[in-house]
Protein backbone atom coordinates (compact mmCIF):
# COMPACT_ATOMS: atom_id res chain seq x y z
CA UNK A 1 0.00 0.00 0.00
CA UNK A 2 1.63 3.18 -1.11
CA UNK A 3 -0.39 6.26 -0.31
CA UNK A 4 2.51 8.66 -0.40
CA UNK A 5 2.82 10.78 -3.49
CA UNK A 6 6.49 10.27 -4.13
CA UNK A 7 8.34 7.02 -4.32
CA UNK A 8 10.08 6.42 -0.98
CA UNK A 9 13.12 4.31 -0.19
CA UNK A 10 12.12 0.86 1.03
CA UNK A 11 12.91 1.49 4.69
CA UNK A 12 11.05 4.76 4.65
CA UNK A 13 8.11 3.11 2.96
CA UNK A 14 7.99 0.43 5.66
CA UNK A 15 7.98 3.11 8.33
CA UNK A 16 5.27 5.01 6.47
CA UNK A 17 3.09 1.90 6.31
CA UNK A 18 3.64 1.12 9.98
CA UNK A 19 2.70 4.65 11.01
CA UNK A 20 -0.38 4.51 8.83
CA UNK A 21 -1.43 1.26 10.47
CA UNK A 22 -0.81 2.78 13.91
CA UNK A 23 -2.89 5.85 13.08
CA UNK A 24 -5.79 3.70 11.94
CA UNK A 25 -5.64 1.77 15.22
CA UNK A 26 -5.47 4.97 17.27
CA UNK A 27 -8.50 6.38 15.48
CA UNK A 28 -10.50 3.16 15.71
CA UNK A 29 -12.58 1.98 18.65
CA UNK A 30 -10.56 -1.21 19.01
CA UNK A 31 -8.87 -1.83 22.36
CA UNK A 32 -5.16 -1.16 22.41
CA UNK A 33 -2.56 -3.10 24.30
CA UNK A 34 0.39 -0.98 23.22
CA UNK A 35 0.84 1.72 25.93
CA UNK A 36 2.34 4.18 23.45
CA UNK A 37 -0.66 3.92 21.15
CA UNK A 38 -2.96 4.16 24.13
CA UNK A 39 -1.24 7.38 25.18
CA UNK A 40 -1.60 8.66 21.61
CA UNK A 41 -5.32 7.92 21.72
CA UNK A 42 -5.72 9.73 25.03
CA UNK A 43 -3.93 12.77 23.68
CA UNK A 44 -6.13 12.69 20.61
CA UNK A 45 -9.22 12.69 22.82
CA UNK A 46 -7.80 15.54 24.84
CA UNK A 47 -7.19 17.54 21.70
CA UNK A 48 -10.72 16.80 20.47
CA UNK A 49 -12.03 18.35 23.68
CA UNK A 50 -10.40 21.64 22.66
CA UNK A 51 -13.09 22.19 20.04
CA UNK A 52 -13.24 25.80 18.89
CA UNK A 53 -15.48 28.26 20.60
CA UNK A 54 -17.86 30.12 18.29
CA UNK A 55 -16.69 33.35 16.80
CA UNK A 56 -16.82 36.05 19.51
CA UNK A 57 -19.95 38.17 19.23
CA UNK A 58 -17.82 41.32 19.17
CA UNK A 59 -15.90 40.14 16.11
CA UNK A 60 -19.06 38.90 14.41
CA UNK A 61 -20.77 42.23 14.97
CA UNK A 62 -17.75 44.11 13.61
CA UNK A 63 -17.74 41.91 10.54
CA UNK A 64 -21.45 42.31 9.81
CA UNK A 65 -21.21 46.05 10.25
CA UNK A 66 -18.51 46.20 7.61
CA UNK A 67 -20.62 44.16 5.23
CA UNK A 68 -23.79 46.20 5.31
CA UNK A 69 -23.60 49.32 3.16
CA UNK A 70 -23.72 52.53 5.10
CA UNK A 71 -27.24 53.98 5.18
CA UNK A 72 -27.65 57.04 3.01
CA UNK A 73 -30.33 58.77 5.04
CA UNK A 74 -28.00 60.28 7.71
CA UNK A 75 -25.93 61.84 4.94
CA UNK A 76 -29.01 63.18 3.19
CA UNK A 77 -30.31 64.54 6.47
CA UNK A 78 -27.02 66.26 7.22
CA UNK A 79 -26.85 67.71 3.70
CA UNK A 80 -30.36 69.13 3.88
CA UNK A 81 -29.73 70.60 7.33
CA UNK A 82 -26.58 72.24 6.04
CA UNK A 83 -28.38 73.62 3.01
CA UNK A 84 -31.12 75.05 5.23
CA UNK A 85 -28.54 76.67 7.47
CA UNK A 86 -26.71 78.25 4.53
CA UNK A 87 -29.97 79.53 3.10
CA UNK A 88 -31.02 81.05 6.42
CA UNK A 89 -27.67 82.79 6.88
CA UNK A 90 -27.75 84.14 3.34
CA UNK A 91 -31.22 85.54 3.72
CA UNK A 92 -30.36 87.14 7.03
CA UNK A 93 -27.21 88.82 5.72
CA UNK A 94 -28.77 90.23 2.50
CA UNK A 95 -30.17 93.83 2.68
CA UNK A 96 -33.89 94.02 3.27
CA UNK A 97 -35.81 94.47 0.10
CA UNK A 98 -38.22 97.40 0.12
CA UNK A 99 -41.82 96.48 0.18
CA UNK A 100 -43.58 97.68 -2.90
CA UNK A 101 -47.08 98.78 -2.47
CA UNK A 102 -49.15 98.38 -5.61
CA UNK A 103 -50.75 101.83 -5.25
CA UNK A 104 -48.65 104.59 -3.78
CA UNK A 105 -50.27 106.84 -1.25
CA UNK A 106 -50.75 110.51 -2.12
CA UNK A 107 -48.01 111.39 0.34
CA UNK A 108 -45.56 109.02 -1.43
CA UNK A 109 -46.54 110.45 -4.80
CA UNK A 110 -45.96 113.91 -3.47
CA UNK A 111 -42.50 113.01 -2.18
CA UNK A 112 -41.63 111.27 -5.43
CA UNK A 113 -42.83 114.24 -7.41
CA UNK A 114 -40.73 116.56 -5.32
CA UNK A 115 -37.67 114.42 -5.84
CA UNK A 116 -38.20 114.30 -9.59
CA UNK A 117 -38.86 118.04 -9.75
CA UNK A 118 -35.64 118.73 -7.89
CA UNK A 119 -33.74 116.44 -10.21
CA UNK A 120 -35.39 117.98 -13.27
CA UNK A 121 -34.69 121.51 -12.06
CA UNK A 122 -31.05 120.75 -11.42
CA UNK A 123 -30.67 118.92 -14.68
CA UNK A 124 -32.17 121.79 -16.67
CA UNK A 125 -29.98 124.18 -14.79
CA UNK A 126 -26.92 122.08 -15.60
CA UNK A 127 -27.83 121.90 -19.27
CA UNK A 128 -28.39 125.65 -19.47
CA UNK A 129 -25.03 126.25 -17.87
CA UNK A 130 -23.33 123.79 -20.22
CA UNK A 131 -24.96 125.41 -23.23
CA UNK A 132 -23.92 128.82 -22.10
CA UNK A 133 -20.32 127.78 -21.67
CA UNK A 134 -20.05 125.45 -24.67
CA UNK A 135 -22.30 127.30 -27.10
CA UNK A 136 -19.51 128.03 -29.50
CA UNK A 137 -17.97 124.59 -29.43
CA UNK A 138 -20.99 122.28 -29.40
CA UNK A 139 -23.94 121.76 -31.68
CA UNK A 140 -27.21 122.90 -30.29
CA UNK A 141 -29.04 119.98 -28.69
CA UNK A 142 -32.24 118.81 -30.29
CA UNK A 143 -34.22 119.06 -27.07
CA UNK A 144 -34.98 122.34 -25.47
CA UNK A 145 -34.41 122.22 -21.70
CA UNK A 146 -37.99 123.18 -21.10
CA UNK A 147 -39.31 120.23 -23.16
CA UNK A 148 -37.60 117.35 -21.41
CA UNK A 149 -40.05 114.46 -21.71
CA UNK A 150 -39.54 112.40 -18.63
CA UNK A 151 -41.60 114.47 -16.24
CA UNK A 152 -44.71 113.99 -18.37
CA UNK A 153 -43.95 110.30 -18.84
CA UNK A 154 -43.64 109.74 -15.14
CA UNK A 155 -46.76 111.73 -14.53
CA UNK A 156 -48.69 109.59 -17.00
CA UNK A 157 -47.34 106.34 -15.49
CA UNK A 158 -48.63 107.12 -12.05
CA UNK A 159 -51.95 105.35 -11.36
CA UNK A 160 -55.13 106.93 -10.30
CA UNK A 161 -56.26 110.47 -10.80
CA UNK A 162 -53.56 112.81 -11.83
CA UNK A 163 -51.85 114.21 -8.85
CA UNK A 164 -50.41 117.64 -9.44
CA UNK A 165 -46.68 117.62 -9.05
CA UNK A 166 -45.58 120.18 -6.59
CA UNK A 167 -43.46 123.08 -7.44
CA UNK A 168 -40.03 122.49 -5.98
CA UNK A 169 -39.84 126.12 -5.09
CA UNK A 170 -42.57 125.57 -2.50
CA UNK A 171 -40.29 123.31 -0.43
CA UNK A 172 -37.59 124.64 1.72
CA UNK A 173 -34.56 122.59 2.43
CA UNK B 1 -31.02 38.58 -1.00
CA UNK B 2 -29.91 34.94 -0.54
CA UNK B 3 -26.21 35.65 -0.12
CA UNK B 4 -26.41 37.05 3.37
CA UNK B 5 -28.10 34.08 5.12
CA UNK B 6 -25.61 31.75 3.46
CA UNK B 7 -22.75 33.94 4.57
CA UNK B 8 -24.05 34.15 8.13
CA UNK B 9 -24.40 30.38 8.27
CA UNK B 10 -20.80 29.97 7.17
CA UNK B 11 -19.57 32.53 9.70
CA UNK B 12 -21.45 30.83 12.52
CA UNK B 13 -20.41 27.33 11.48
CA UNK B 14 -16.75 27.93 10.74
CA UNK B 15 -15.72 31.33 12.12
CA UNK B 16 -14.61 29.78 15.42
CA UNK B 17 -12.49 27.18 13.60
CA UNK B 18 -10.70 29.84 11.61
CA UNK B 19 -10.04 31.90 14.71
CA UNK B 20 -8.69 28.90 16.59
CA UNK B 21 -6.39 27.97 13.71
CA UNK B 22 -5.14 31.54 13.44
CA UNK B 23 -4.58 31.79 17.19
CA UNK B 24 -2.69 28.53 17.26
CA UNK B 25 -0.49 29.67 14.43
CA UNK B 26 0.07 33.27 15.40
CA UNK B 27 -0.14 33.05 19.20
CA UNK B 28 -1.61 36.54 19.22
CA UNK B 29 -5.31 37.05 19.61
CA UNK B 30 -5.50 40.51 18.04
CA UNK B 31 -3.62 39.48 14.90
CA UNK B 32 -5.67 36.31 14.67
CA UNK B 33 -8.91 38.27 14.79
CA UNK B 34 -7.70 40.64 12.08
CA UNK B 35 -6.76 37.72 9.85
CA UNK B 36 -10.12 36.03 10.34
CA UNK B 37 -12.01 39.22 9.69
CA UNK B 38 -10.10 39.77 6.45
CA UNK B 39 -10.72 36.20 5.34
CA UNK B 40 -14.44 36.43 6.05
CA UNK B 41 -14.70 39.72 4.18
CA UNK B 42 -12.90 38.08 1.29
CA UNK B 43 -15.33 35.19 1.52
CA UNK B 44 -18.21 37.63 1.18
CA UNK B 45 -16.70 39.00 -2.01
CA UNK B 46 -15.80 35.61 -3.47
CA UNK B 47 -18.91 33.74 -2.42
CA UNK B 48 -20.79 34.02 -5.74
CA UNK B 49 -17.91 32.24 -7.42
CA UNK B 50 -17.47 29.60 -4.70
CA UNK B 51 -19.09 26.24 -5.15
CA UNK B 52 -21.39 25.46 -2.21
CA UNK B 53 -19.79 22.91 0.08
CA UNK B 54 -16.26 23.95 -0.73
CA UNK B 55 -16.22 27.10 1.34
CA UNK B 56 -14.58 25.55 4.41
CA UNK B 57 -11.58 24.30 2.46
CA UNK B 58 -11.24 27.67 0.78
CA UNK B 59 -11.42 29.54 4.09
CA UNK B 60 -8.90 27.23 5.75
CA UNK B 61 -6.43 27.60 2.88
CA UNK B 62 -6.78 31.41 3.00
CA UNK B 63 -6.46 31.54 6.78
CA UNK B 64 -3.43 29.28 6.88
CA UNK B 65 -1.71 31.16 4.05
CA UNK B 66 -2.43 34.51 5.66
CA UNK B 67 -0.99 33.26 8.96
CA UNK B 68 2.09 31.85 7.27
CA UNK B 69 2.63 35.18 5.50
CA UNK B 70 2.35 37.00 8.80
CA UNK B 71 4.74 34.60 10.48
CA UNK B 72 7.26 35.04 7.68
CA UNK B 73 7.03 38.80 7.95
CA UNK B 74 7.25 38.61 11.70
CA UNK B 75 10.32 36.36 11.64
CA UNK B 76 11.99 38.70 9.15
CA UNK B 77 11.18 41.76 11.21
CA UNK B 78 11.96 40.32 14.60
CA UNK B 79 14.70 37.89 13.84
CA UNK B 80 16.50 38.67 17.08
CA UNK B 81 13.47 39.15 19.25
CA UNK B 82 12.53 36.16 21.28
CA UNK B 83 8.81 35.81 21.17
CA UNK B 84 7.44 35.17 24.60
CA UNK B 85 4.40 32.98 24.47
CA UNK B 86 1.55 34.86 25.96
CA UNK B 87 -1.38 32.58 26.55
CA UNK B 88 -3.89 35.31 27.32
CA UNK B 89 -4.55 36.83 23.94
CA UNK B 90 -4.34 33.53 22.13
CA UNK B 91 -6.48 31.58 24.51
CA UNK B 92 -10.00 30.51 23.78
CA UNK B 93 -12.79 32.33 25.50
CA UNK B 94 -13.77 29.20 27.38
CA UNK B 95 -10.52 29.14 29.32
CA UNK B 96 -10.14 32.86 29.85
CA UNK B 97 -12.50 33.06 32.76
CA UNK B 98 -11.31 32.66 36.32
CA UNK B 99 -11.93 29.01 37.18
CA UNK B 100 -12.36 27.00 40.33
CA UNK B 101 -9.34 24.89 41.28
CA UNK B 102 -10.24 21.80 39.27
CA UNK B 103 -11.03 23.85 36.22
CA UNK B 104 -7.86 25.83 36.75
CA UNK B 105 -5.78 22.69 36.39
CA UNK B 106 -7.63 21.80 33.20
CA UNK B 107 -7.18 25.32 31.92
CA UNK B 108 -3.44 25.17 32.64
CA UNK B 109 -3.20 21.88 30.80
CA UNK B 110 -5.11 23.31 27.84
CA UNK B 111 -2.84 26.32 27.79
CA UNK B 112 0.23 24.10 27.85
CA UNK B 113 -1.20 22.11 24.97
CA UNK B 114 -1.87 25.24 22.96
CA UNK B 115 1.62 26.52 23.54
CA UNK B 116 3.15 23.21 22.58
CA UNK B 117 1.05 23.01 19.41
CA UNK B 118 1.89 26.59 18.53
CA UNK B 119 5.57 25.73 18.81
CA UNK B 120 5.29 22.82 16.37
CA UNK B 121 6.62 23.23 12.84
CA UNK B 122 4.37 23.22 9.81
CA UNK B 123 2.54 21.19 8.60
CA UNK B 124 2.43 19.30 11.93
CA UNK B 125 0.75 22.24 13.67
CA UNK B 126 -1.95 22.59 11.03
CA UNK B 127 -2.56 18.86 11.01
CA UNK B 128 -3.07 18.73 14.76
CA UNK B 129 -5.43 21.70 14.73
CA UNK B 130 -7.44 20.63 11.71
CA UNK B 131 -7.58 16.88 12.21
CA UNK B 132 -7.42 16.28 15.95
CA UNK B 133 -8.93 19.46 17.38
CA UNK B 134 -11.38 20.47 14.69
CA UNK B 135 -12.05 17.00 13.24
CA UNK B 136 -12.02 18.22 9.65
CA UNK B 137 -12.23 15.37 7.17
CA UNK B 138 -9.10 13.88 5.63
CA UNK B 139 -9.99 14.86 2.07
CA UNK B 140 -10.38 18.56 2.91
CA UNK B 141 -7.15 18.64 4.89
CA UNK B 142 -5.33 16.75 2.13
CA UNK B 143 -6.47 19.31 -0.41
CA UNK B 144 -5.59 22.16 1.90
CA UNK B 145 -2.05 20.94 2.56
CA UNK B 146 -1.49 19.45 -0.87
CA UNK B 147 -0.95 15.96 0.50
CA UNK B 148 -2.40 12.54 -0.18
CA UNK B 149 -4.99 11.12 2.22
CA UNK B 150 -2.51 8.59 3.61
CA UNK B 151 0.11 11.28 4.06
CA UNK B 152 -2.40 13.28 6.11
CA UNK B 153 -2.99 10.27 8.37
CA UNK B 154 0.66 9.39 8.77
CA UNK B 155 1.86 12.94 9.33
CA UNK B 156 -0.93 13.52 11.84
CA UNK B 157 0.14 10.42 13.72
CA UNK B 158 3.75 11.62 13.76
CA UNK B 159 2.79 15.14 14.78
CA UNK B 160 0.67 13.87 17.66
CA UNK B 161 3.41 11.61 18.86
CA UNK B 162 5.96 14.43 18.67
CA UNK B 163 3.57 16.61 20.66
CA UNK B 164 3.11 13.94 23.30
CA UNK B 165 6.85 13.45 23.65
CA UNK B 166 7.33 17.19 23.98
CA UNK B 167 4.68 17.45 26.69
CA UNK B 168 6.25 14.52 28.57
CA UNK B 169 9.66 16.16 28.36
CA UNK B 170 8.25 19.43 29.65
CA UNK B 171 6.60 17.79 32.65
CA UNK B 172 9.79 15.81 33.37
CA UNK B 173 11.75 19.07 33.37
CA UNK B 174 9.22 20.70 35.68
CA UNK B 175 9.40 17.77 38.07
CA UNK B 176 13.20 17.98 38.10
CA UNK B 177 13.07 21.73 38.80
CA UNK B 178 10.62 21.21 41.66
CA UNK B 179 12.89 18.50 43.05
CA UNK B 180 15.91 20.81 42.92
CA UNK B 181 13.96 23.62 44.54
- The CATH architecture of the largest domain in chain B is Orthogonal Bundle
Mean pLDDT of chain B: 82
SS-based class of chain A = mainly alpha
The dominant shape of chain A is rod-shaped
Estimated helix fraction of chain B: over 70%
Q: Identify the CATH homologous superfamily of the largest domain in chain B.
A: Winged helix-like DNA-binding domain superfamily/Winged helix DNA-binding domain
The shape of chain B is globular
Largest sheet features of chain A:
none
DSSP summary, beta strand count of chain B? 0
Number of strands of chain A: 0
Mean pLDDT figure of chain A: 77
- Tally of DSSP helical segments of chain B: 9
Plain-language structure description:
The complex is a heterodimer of chains A (173) and B (181). With 173 residues, chain A is mainly alpha-helical. Chain A is 58% helix and 0% strand. Chain A has six helices and no strands. Chain A has helices at 10-27, 35-48, 57-67, 73-93, 106-134, 150-157. The mean pLDDT of chain A is 77. Chain B has two domains: 1-78, RNA polymerase sigma factor, region 2, helix turn helix motif (Rna Polymerase Sigma Factor, Chain: A); 99-181, Arc Repressor Mutant, subunit A (Orthogonal Bundle), CATH 1.10.10.10. Chain B contains nine helices and no strands. The longest helix of chain B is centred in the last third of the chain and has 32 residues, at 149-180. The termini of chain B are far apart. Classes of the chains: A mainly alpha (173), B mainly alpha (181). Chains A and B meet through α1, α2 and α3 of A and α1, α2, α6, α7 and α9 of B.
